Amino acid sequence: MAPPALSPLMQWRRIEALVGAWLEQRQQLIVRLCALQGLEGLDDARPRSVQSRVGEFCQLLMDYISAGYFEVYRELVREARRYQETPDVAGHILRELDQSTEEALAFNEDFDSDDHCLGQLQQLPERLNRLTEVLEERFALEDQLILSVHQAPRRHALRH
Q1: What is the mean pLDDT of the segment spanning 130-145?
Q2: At what angle do helices 8-37 and 47-67 cross, to 10 degrees?
Q3: Which of 33, 88, 100, 120 has the maximum number of C-beta atoms within 10 A of its C-beta?
Q4: Are the C-beta atoms of residues 57 and 131 closer than 8 Å to each other?
Q5: 86 part of a folded domain
Q6: pLDDT of 94-116, one tens digit each?
């Protein structure tokens, strides 16, 4: 027997809780990224310490990207479909997010293991700067997706 359907209000509260937790994860990601950018002497002076921090950041980055794609975006798009006015916007935004996902995956692949990270410490500052730019764009797109879905019920109610 299927569980009872949630009321629209309960469904929205569930989505808000999911998005809220995800945005907290985003905040942690930003803090870790800033901490990495603030490290001095990213050369071979303290390679193990740097590698450990980069590894933790990579794990958080992959968790954030995965939660977005496999949980948050799916729920937001499902909610958008209920109002029939934002699915195109949501689809467009999701396509735009693909580029930043590829950049994040490439960064993770290059720096996720000890050997990879230690072998590329010289490139780390430049790669972090590029990743920061990409993530800024990603966060703006994600915020646009959240906002478009969040405003849909109000626009729908005003028309009906």
Answers
A1: 95
A2: 160
A3: 100
A4: no
A5: yes
A6: 889 998 999 999 999 999 887 77
